[in-house]
Specification:
By secondary structure, the protein is of the alpha+beta class. It has one domain. It has 4 helices and 6 strands; from the N terminus they run H-E-E-H-H-E-E-H-E-E. Helix 1 crosses helix 4 and helix 3 crosses helix 4. This is YchA. It comes from Escherichia coli.
């Protein structure tokens, strides 16, 4: 059941990410298969994909620093990388399973803009991770059998339980 549960949780997490505008290449993995619902998100966001994700997350109305950051990143080679590591410290909160890295961001952005971009991405990761952790409990409950007989049907020599 654990493999089925983990597969369903990962599929659910991926569907949530795609529904929120994350790129098709986004991948999800269980942080620890023995603790279902704690996920890590893996994706490399170039400047156009990052801009699309952030604009979608804010319904087109961006805070000042975020709008400035997206404008400055347009046409650059900037990349933001989300990854997870099973060898890092155990997570405290569901979103702790995903590391966010924005290499060389200082080449294009001011410190306030970098903080705004990282905060927006972490917020997006947190919203999906927390939702998946909550939904994992429901998925697990749906897969757990109670052992009670739901239906008994008997015809002549055959009995269906």
């Amino acid at each position: 059941m654990n493999e089925t549960l983990n597969a369903l949780i990962c599929r659910h997490a991926r569907n949530l990410l795609l529904a929120q505008g994350w790129p098709e290449e986004t991948d999800v993995d269980q942080r620890n298969p023995n603790h279902p619902g704690w996920i890590s998100i893996y994706v490399r966001l170039d400047a156009p994909r990052l801009a699309t994700l952030l604009v979608n997350r804010h319904d087109g109305v961006l805070p000042l620093h975020l709008a400035s950051a997206i404008q400055k990143l347009t046409g650059t080679g900037a990349e933001l990388v989300l990854s997870g590591s099973q060898w890092q410290a155990l997570p405290v909160l569901p979103a702790d399973g995903t590391q966010v890295s924005f290499p060389y961001a200082g080449e294009w952005l001011a410190e306030d803009e970098i903080r705004a971009v990282l905060a927006a991405v972490r917020d997006a990761v947190r919203s999906v991770s927390c939702r998946v952790a909550e939904d994992a409990r429901r998925i697990r409950a749906a897969l757990t059998t109670t052992g009670q007989t739901l239906l008994t049907r008997q015809t002549r020599r055959f009995r269906l339980v």
